[in-house]
């Protein structure tokens, strides 16, 4: 365990996919001993990818144009809207082949410990989409863990006055897991057996 | 490599925070009974087949065994003592308050492995009380924050002047001075809270729930503001979760849309 900035960097690196605590430590100390110019170039590369990548203006999924492939598809119904945390959850649900509606990507879950509240997610945007009245069913497909469940609870209360049919994926998904790790069959079943909240 | 590497340790703990690590692991920050705050990796916990299941979710009281490592420990076994987190899932205000309790416990234990039995017992007790739904969310949270500050050595003066020590119920409250201040010691900019607010803070600090439960919304809001200001004065930086605490009393009825969209404390002092 280190103190201050170096531990912060190790923690951040350790959150990256495939980077374990030992690699995180190794990379952090490499950065520490590297040339300031090289570190600056790395930092700006990270910043640029963040600035240049596009998100669908309707659902906030990753997109190559104004709207993502799913939002552009005229064969899908606007009556069912599925709320997920991340673009990778869209991929996981698409794999099941069970869903023919549209998505809304929140960009995470409410997590006060990380300073993430409703204002930091695409919650206002969701409310705007719902205000058109076209959506009849709202599926809350946030992760089956504490943050995901609390986010679903928050959204269910928020949209209650709108009189929508609000559903949550059926149990069978293990609590504490990530949606993306559920296999297609389990996730498909959870989708089919979704319950009203 | 240290001589401790690979040793198994067992203790009971409360889960303060979980963070994603790599593909399917999590770093779990826990406050243990005898070993202070520790951080351990829970391997594969995000996979559907994980043997840990929901036992390492935030806010749970657990019986845990870990393998000591050089920079991070590794969780080897875990049993639930009482998984409070489950009971906050369908109660958003309680979830936000539990988050603030957990963040405070983490911030008050800046050094890992430094035992703090009193803070551990207070934290488990606060989560248990929050889960039991016997008292209003904001009262449970403010009582915790006051008593946690006292354990850290920052108890606000409530029954005497913070500067000269003169006993009595003084009317002014100064965050930089450390609590209530008498008319002589009152620095410029000191707040003048309602007497009922200071009485409520005394009740919360001493565990007088009868008085606290009987308090009115006005003093409650004012007390929440003073408690938050007092605690955050002593911490290097503010608590991230505190502005996100939903202090609305009942959220079972249809919520007011505007306020719900901005739960950052319009109803707080
Ligand atoms: Zn889209
Ligand atoms: Zn004085």
TrEMBL record, chain A:
Zinc finger (C4-type): 56-71
Role, per record: May play a role in DNA repair. It seems to be involved in an RecBC-independent recombinational process of DNA repair. It may act with RecF and RecO.
Keywords associated with the record: DNA damage, DNA recombination, DNA repair, Metal-binding, Zinc, Zinc-finger
Lineage: Bacteria, Bacillati, Actinomycetota, Actinomycetes, Micromonosporales
Record-linked PROSITE patterns: TOPRIM
Keyword Zinc: yes
Sequence similarity: Belongs to the RecR family.
GO biological process, one term: DNA recombination
All residue ranges annotated as the Toprim domain in the record: 79-174
The organism's place on the tree of life at top rank: Bacteria
Matches recorded under PANTHER family: RECOMBINATION PROTEIN RECR
Annotated organism of origin: Planosporangium mesophilum
GO molecular function terms listed in the Swiss-Prot or TrEMBL record: DNA binding; zinc ion binding
A matching Pfam family: RecR_HhH
Name of the protein: Recombination protein RecR
TrEMBL record, chain B:
Protein family per UniProt: Belongs to the RecO family.
Functional description taken from the UniProt entry: Involved in DNA repair and RecF pathway recombination.
Biological processes per GO annotation: DNA recombination; double-strand break repair
Record-given protein name: DNA repair protein RecO
Pfam short name (any one): RecO_N
An annotated GO cellular component: bacterial nucleoid
Taxonomy of the source species: Bacteria, Bacillati, Actinomycetota, Actinomycetes, Micromonosporales
Domain of life according to the entry: Bacteria
Domain DNA replication/recombination mediator RecO N-terminal: 9-84
DNA repair keyword on record: yes
Keywords: DNA damage, DNA recombination, DNA repair
Native species: Planosporangium mesophilum
NCBIfam families in UniProt: reco
PANTHER family: DNA REPAIR PROTEIN RECO
Keyword Repressor: no
